[in-house]
Amino acid sequence: MEKITFRNTFRFILVIYFLYLIGDIFYRWDGASYYMTLSEFVPSIALISLLWGLVALFSALIIYLVLKSCEYICGRAGLNINMNLLLIFIGVFILIYSIAWSINRIDRNHMMPWYVWRIILVS
């Protein structure tokens, strides 16, 4: 397995942030195209890309320091925890949480009884 480095963490966070940014830019251009030209819109894209890059840098720094401190604390406690497996665990946990959140948004009026949700989430 590949070692967790700041460069890899930064690349991952930067890709996620810029995928979100691209979707937001296209959404905003759809509305802004009625009253401005593309040459007027491009400088704002450049500025927000620079700002999102800085946010990605600080986010990656925080995530990297948290992972390294967790690795250090577990090492001092005598626990041999693989950081790659910890990242997979955190990713699966976030995925399950986002699926449950999406299901909750779909069923806002609570049309399904509680036991149906229990069967879906347990199985």
Descriptive report:
The chain has 123 residues and is mostly helical. Helix 1 packs antiparallel against helix 2. The chain contains four helices and no strands. The model has no long low-confidence stretch (mean pLDDT 80).
Number of helices: 4
Assign the structural class, choosing from mainly alpha, mainly beta, alpha/beta, alpha+beta, or little secondary structure.
mainly alpha
Question: Percent of residues in helical segments?
Answer: over 70%
Basic shape: flat
Task: Give the SSE string.
Answer: HHHH
Regions with little confidence, pLDDT below 50 for 5+ residues: none
What value does the average pLDDT take? 80
Number of strands: 0
Largest sheet: none
| Percentage of β-strand residues | under 5%
Kindly report how far apart the N and C termini lie: 31 Å
- Radius of gyration based on Cα positions: 21 Å
